[in-house]
Amino acid sequence: MEPLLLFPDPAPPVLAQSLDLGGYPWKAAATADEAAAIEPEDGWAGAVIAADEDPEGAFALCRALRKRDVPLEPVLVLVSGAQLADLELREDLFDDFCLAPLQPRELEARLKHLFWRTGRGTRPELVEYGPLVLNLETYQAGIGGRPLDLTYMEYELLKFLATHPGKVFTRETLLSRVWGYEYYGGARTVDVHIRRLRAKLGEEHANLISTVRSVGYRFGQPKWSL
Amino acid sequence: MVLVERHQDYVLRTVEERGIRFIQLWFTDVLGIPKTFSITPAELENALAEGMTFDGSAIDGFSRVQESDVLARPDAKTFQIVQSPDGSAIGRVFCDILNLDGTPFDGCPRHVLRRTMERAHEKGFSFFAAPEVEYFYFAEGDPSQPLRPLDHGSYFELTVADIGGDLRQQTVLTLEDMGIPVEYAQHEDAPSQHEIDLRHTDALTMADTVMTVRMVVKELARQRGVHATFMPKPLTGVQGSGMHTHFSLFEGDSPAFYDPGDEYNLSKVGKGFIAGLLMHAREITAVTNQWVNSYKRLVIGYEAPVYVSWARNNRSALVRVPLAKLGKTESTRIVYRAPDPACNPYLAFACVLAAGLKGIEEGYELPPEAATNLYEMTPSQLAAAGIPSLPGSLSEALAEMEGSALMAETLGDHVFEWFLRNKRAEWSDYKAQVSQFELDRYLPTL
Q1: Binary contact (B81, A149; C-beta < 8 A)
Q2: Are the Cβ atoms of B77 and A186 closer than 8 angstroms?
């Protein structure tokens, strides 16, 4: 699936985490120009625009996205209860909305429905990388045809890494994106889980996750060597 | 709450997808003995949401005056698929024990440890542990027969065709498959004695892991017709089994015990932790060494700690501060050498943490490093140096524990009182026994 466009940049943590956990890839942009600059070749899968902090910027971006030759859809906006009135006369700028503070389950349900309605880019069922296969629908993972017996957090970590191959993540990023901010194990937890994942992947495949010295971890090959 | 739902969803889907027919619910009594009952997938959803009711009165340390029913609620994050001996996959999940109203049950050892770790967390610390688990293999586990070790090997010995070595290797592979990374595994000093060193993780997960390791070691041995034991001192005249445990605190990503400017590379936090541990060592020993037999290990001559002291390279000390490898400051840690592998790891880790935190909070002064071999000092030299001994018996340890406000607070009234009562009963049973030693020594002459 192509990534979703997210506003603002940096993306609100809860929003970012919900999309990560839901298996939706995304990229954040602060303006329409920025969005155009980082737009993937096959176009955005859709957009999630948080309008609760900076409504003006948010609706300006919506307008720009809808004014294109092929208007971008679906567009989901996030507004606070007090902003509901702002939606009036802007009906053409979005396909659906969610109330902030965000309920991750609601967001996921609405995205699912939007993608079903617009008939494109439904979330991927399978993530494959070399011998590794993840089925996001059933939460199952396998390597070289052998099922991996993962705990929940090991699964989430592997899923996050496998959906971003070649990219290096710091421990802090992994902690906030996979565990959320409220986890009390601290960044050390990431090392511990990586070690467990490698143990379970087995000696042959342990190098799927590499340690990038004094930075963090990377899944798969670095981008330039592909 | 979305994360909680996802955990549960993950477990439910996995059980369904993998065709799992039984889920073992694991928990631990106050003495660290594993308890388990199995449920079917149909009961799992309700168990995850509300917990399974059972009668706690038959479990050591769970009985109460008014209400005997408690709830076992699976901690979905600990769900793991394991292979049963017949090759089928079963689910295993650790449980928290709750009162019927959903509040944590005071007798639950996981709760005691979690509560202490939360106290550390409030001060910005996360607490990590890495134990070195020692144990013996014997040809059989019948106490009426003399014990038969499987070999006469010793430390690091490379032996041919020994079942013990094979078993240890198989155990390590099984543990790795379960996501429990092993740092080293080796033959230990005594005949048929083995050691498995686990890689550090947060103390709660590690306590769960110790329970798993003990189970896996025993089960794999049983399948080969061998008896594995974590009894602290099964054989007279050779080393006993300890569980030296490496402990560290982290503040976010940085090792809280490390200070490059200090002559020992120890921070104020590190020194306070060690000082707290030393100050309260005698009080926590009843928990780290909870059996009559534990004190047969804590004697001079077998590399077990006896004197309350710390040192960097002196292996007779109770607290050892290993040198962090160059450029590996994150591995700054201390090793507490008293615990044995038959302790309740939840309670033992909680007591070590509580003692260390106390030292940090109160700013205890770290006593000087023990430079010489303490075993060679005379009692008067030790007294002059202000170095006390660990309790010499369970009875002495219980007396120390009973007077300890720190222990009462850490364990909570329920566990504290039950533990003392139970252990006093064990001691009085033991005291009334006439041993082989006495017969051999006294019958001919007296």
Answers
A1: yes
A2: no
Architecture of domain A4-118: 3-Layer(aba) Sandwich (3.40)
Where do the domains of chain A lie?
4-118, 126-225
Residue ranges, CATH 3.30.590.10, chain B: 115-440
Residue B172 and residue B178: Cα distance in Å, rounded? 10
Q: What percent of chain B clears pLDDT 70, i.e. is strictly above it?
A: 96
Minimum-distance CB partner of A188 among B11, B78, B128: B128
Collapsing DSSP states into helix, strand and coil, what is residue B92?
Answer: strand
Check if B10 contacts A (Cβ < 8 Å). yes
ipTM, interface predicted TM-score of the complex: 0.71
Contact A95, A74 (CB under 8 A): yes
DSSP result, chain A: -PPEEEESSSPPHHHHHHHHHHT--EEE-SSHHHHHHH--TT--SEEEEE-SS-HHHHHHHHHHHHTSSS----EEEEEEGGGGGGGTT-GGG-SEEEEESP-HHHHHHHHHHHHHHHTS-PPPSEEEETTEEEETTTTEEEETTEEE---HHHHHHHHHHHTSTT-EEEHHHHIIIII-TT-TT-THHHHHHHHHHHHHH-TTTGGGEEEETTTEEEESS-GGG-
Tokens read off for B42: 């149909």
> Is A14's Cβ below 8 Å from some Cβ in B?
no
CA dihedral defined by B377, B383, B389, B393, rounded to 10 degrees?
A: 110
Q: What is the pLDDT of residues B197-222, one digit of tens each?
A: 999 899 999 999 999 999 999 999 99
- Two tokens, residue B252: 């976010």
Q: Do B179 and A186 touch (CB under 8 A)?
A: no
CATH fold group of domain B115-440 = Creatine Kinase; Chain A, domain 2 (3.30.590)
B243-300 per-position pLDDT tens digit = 999 999 998 778 899 998 888 889 999 999 999 999 999 999 999 999 999 999 999 8
Q: Tell me if chain B has a CB within 8 Å of the CB of A131.
A: no
Q: In chain A, which residues have their Cβ closer than 8 Å to the Cβ of B254? A: none
Side-chain-side CA neighbours of B9 within 13 Å: the count stands at: 15
Q: Who among B77, B82, B201 is closest to A192 (CB)?
A: B201
- Please indicate if any CB of chain B lies within 8 Å of the CB of A95: no
**pTM, to two decimals:** 0.82
Same fold, A4-118 and A126-225: no
- In chain B, CATH 3.10.20.70 covers 2-103
DSSP letter string over B9-77? Answer: HHHHHHHHHTT---EEEEEE-TT--EEEEEE-HHHHHHHHHH-EEEEGGGSTTT--SS--EEEEEE-GG
CATH of A126-225, one of 1.10.287.470, 1.10.10.10, 1.10.3720.10, 3.40.720.10: 1.10.10.10
* CATH 3.30.200.20 is held by the domain B2-103: no
Site from A152, A171, A191 to mutate, B interface, most B CB atoms within 10 angstroms: A152
CB < 8 Å from B in window 156-185 of A: 171-172, 180, 184-185
| A23 interaction partners in chain B (CB closer than 8 Å) | none
Q: How far out from the chain centre does Cα B12 lie?
A: 31
Please, which pLDDT band fits residue B326 given cuts at 50, 70 and 90? low
How many Cα atoms within 13 Å fall on the side-chain side of residue A175?
Answer: 18
